[in-house]
Amino acid sequence: MIFEGLRWIIGRGVLAYEKMTAPEAPVYSMEQQAAIDAQTQGLALYEFKACPFCMKVRQEFRRKGLNVELRDARRNPAWGDELREEGGKYQTPCLKITSGDGQVEWLYESNDIIDWLGENIVIQA
Ligand SMILES: N[C@@H](CCC(=O)N[C@@H](CS)C(=O)NCC(=O)O)C(=O)O
C-alpha cells in the first residue's frame, strides 16, 4: 500500500517533469515526415507511463519527430504478456523492431534504444 502510494507520487513527478522538459518537435516537410514514418512503422515501444527511462526514450522520439507506437505494458496486460514472453523479461523501455522481412528484435535499455535510433533512422536534410 505504502509502496503503491510512493510509486504513484513518483509517477506523477515523472509525468510533470516530462511535460515541463518536452523538447520542441522539429518541423519537417510532408515528404521528410513520410520518409521518417516509413522507417518507424515497424517500431513499437513497450513502456510504463511513469518510468523515467521510458520518459527519456519518449523525449528522444519528440526531439527527432518520430511517430512510434507506444504500448503501455502495465495498463494493457496483453502487451505486458507479449513483452515477458517474446521479449524475454518484463522490463521497460523495450523497443520491438519488426523489419521489412518480418524479423523481430527486442531491444532493452534506454541508452541502447536511443543509440539504435541514432544509427538506424535516417533524417534527410
Ligand atoms: N537500465 C534500464 C532500467 C530500466 C528499468 O529499471 N525499468 C523499470 C521501470 S522504471 C522496470 O522495468 N522495472 C520492472 C518492473 O517494474 O516490474 C534502462 O535504462 O532502460
Automatic annotation (TrEMBL):
Transmembrane segments: none
Pfam family, one: GST_N_3
InterPro entries reported for this sequence: Glutathione_S-Trfase_N, Thioredoxin-like_sf
Domain of life the protein comes from: Bacteria
Name of the protein this chain belongs to: GST N-terminal domain-containing protein
Matches recorded under Gene3D superfamilies: Glutaredoxin (3.40.30.10)
Domain GST N-terminal residues, every copy: 41-125
Organism annotation: Solemya elarraichensis gill symbiont
